[in-house]
Structure formats: structure tokens, C-alpha cells
């Protein structure tokens, strides 16, 4: 009997700290820019990272790798590769979708939840989902929640994103 071809699910979490005062002082206009869910957030303190620190895009990419059994962010992009310095989350997500497709899987959809007090995400949800969906080549939806001022996200020390993805073995 032949095995049924089933979709596969993946899961991922990404965390980045907000840039500290020293990093902001070293930045061009005194504030590290925030890149989140593929969008620039004017006036908001940015995240630390080797890349642009976009937790939403990173969690989305890592969930695709998880679903396809293609390793993870670090095994595909390294943790300090010079060519990834400042890399945008949208680039990482697009490249992850490409890697997964080459491995024989069609990305089905990705669902991400952002955890943090700010920025207030909901007003820009449609814009963010459109940018992420374009990069991934499949539907990406994003919800957001605070942690009720609890923990490191609640204290405004950083952001977390949790993601699931579905991929379908390409016939
Ligand atoms: N960074 C965030 C966090 C939350 N939201 C929206 O607020 C709603 C209520 O959040 P609670 O944590 O108090 O349940 C949430 O459902 C989101 O719609 C947001 O936009 N940005
Ligand atoms: C994306 C990568 C690329 O160097 O950079 P970081 O900004 O460190 O982000 P992280 O989510 O910790 O994943 C690791 C890296 O692959």
C-alpha cells in the first residue's frame, strides 16, 4: 500500500532584545530603526541582532524550515555570516521559502503571533500581512498580544514571535 501524501506542520519561536542605549547612541540618528513584520516602524526603538532582528519574519521562516525538515535559521543562514549582516526579514523569509521549495515542499500557509506591549500592531496588520505574504509566496497571517506587562516582553525588554507553518509535499 502506498503512503498517503500528507501536509506537514512546523513550529518556531524567535526572540530579540530591543537595542540598548549604547547601540542607539551609535546609530545614525540616535535610534536603531525598528523593522518588524517586514515593515519599518518610525519612532520606535529597534531590535538587536546580526540581521535586522525582525522576529515576526524570522519565526515565519523558521516555521517553514521546521515543517519541511530543512533545519533552522542558523543552519541555513549561520549566526554571524558577513553577508547576513543587517539582512532584512523579508529577504530571509523569501530565501527560506525558496529553500523549502527546492527541497520538494510547497508552502501552504504561515500563522505568526507577536508578543509584546508595543508597537501597537493591529493598525498595520493588513500592510504587514501583505508584505510577508509577498515574500513567502503563501498566506502569512499575524496576530499580536501583550503579555499583560509580565516577563521580558511585558517589561519592554524585547519581542517574541511564535509561528506555525504548513507545507505540502510537491507532487
Ligand atoms: N503589540 C500589540 C499587542 C496587542 N495588540 C492588540 O491588542 C489586543 C489585546 O491584547 P491583550 O494582550 O491585552 O489581550 C490584541 O488582541 C491585539 O489585537 C496589538 O495590536 N499590538
Ligand atoms: C537571522 C540571523 C542571520 O545571521 O540573524 P539574527 O539577527 O541573529 O537573528 P536570529 O533570529 O537570532 O537568527 C539567527 C541568524 O540566522
TrEMBL record:
One example GO MF annotation: metal ion binding
GO terms (BP aspect): isopentenyl diphosphate biosynthetic process, methylerythritol 4-phosphate pathway; terpenoid biosynthetic process
Sequence ranges assigned to domain 2-C-methyl-D-erythritol 2,4-cyclodiphosphate synthase in this UniProt record: 8-167
Entry keyword set: Isoprene biosynthesis, Lyase, Metal-binding
Pathway per the UniProt entry: Isoprenoid biosynthesis; isopentenyl diphosphate biosynthesis via DXP pathway; isopentenyl diphosphate from 1-deoxy-D-xylulose 5-phosphate: step 4/6
Cofactor: how bound: Binds 1 divalent metal cation per subunit.
Signal peptide location: none
Entry-linked InterPro entries: MECDP_synthase, MECDP_synthase_CS, MECDP_synthase_sf
Cofactor(s) this protein cannot do without: a divalent metal cation
Site entry: Transition state stabilizer: 50, 146
Source species, domain of life: Bacteria
Family in the record: Belongs to the IspF family.
NCBIfam families, alphabetized: ispF
HAMAP family: IspF
Assembly and interaction partners: Homotrimer.
Function comment: Involved in the biosynthesis of isopentenyl diphosphate (IPP) and dimethylallyl diphosphate (DMAPP), two major building blocks of isoprenoid compounds. Catalyzes the conversion of 4-diphosphocytidyl-2-C-methyl-D-erythritol 2-phosphate (CDP-ME2P) to 2-C-methyl-D-erythritol 2,4-cyclodiphosphate (ME-CPP) with a corresponding release of cytidine 5-monophosphate (CMP).
Protein name in the entry: 2-C-methyl-D-erythritol 2,4-cyclodiphosphate synthase
Species for this entry: Kocuria soli
Amino acid at each position: 500500500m502506498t503512503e498517503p501524501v500528507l501536509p506537514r506542520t512546523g513550529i518556531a519561536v524567535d526572540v530579540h532584545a530591543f537595542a540598548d542605549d549604547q547601540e542607539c547612541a551609535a546609530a545614525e540618528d540616535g535610534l536603531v530603526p525598528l523593522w518588524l513584520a517586514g515593515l519599518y516602524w518610525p519612532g520606535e526603538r529597534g531590535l538587536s541582532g546580526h540581521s535586522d532582528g525582525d522576529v515576526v519574519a524570522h519565526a515565519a521562516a523558521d516555521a517553514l524550515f521546521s515543517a519541511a525538515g530543512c533545519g533552522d535559521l542558523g543552519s541555513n543562514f549561520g549566526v554571524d555570516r558577513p553577508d547576513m549582516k543587517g539582512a532584512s526579514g523579508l529577504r530571509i523569509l523569501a530565501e527560506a521559502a525558496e529553500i523549502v521549495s527546492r527541497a520538494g515542499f510547497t508552502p501552504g500557509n504561515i500563522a505568526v503571533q507577536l508578543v509584546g506591549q508595543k508597537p501597537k500592531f493591529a493598525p498595520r496588520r493588513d500592510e504587514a500581512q501583505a508584505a510577508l505574504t509577498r515574500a513567502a509566496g503563501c498566506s502569512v497571517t499575524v496576530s499580536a498580544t501583550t503579555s499583560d506587562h509580565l516577563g521580558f516582553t511585558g517589561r519592554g525588554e524585547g519581542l517574541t514571535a511564535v509561528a506555525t507553518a504548513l507545507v505540502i509535499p510537491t507532487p
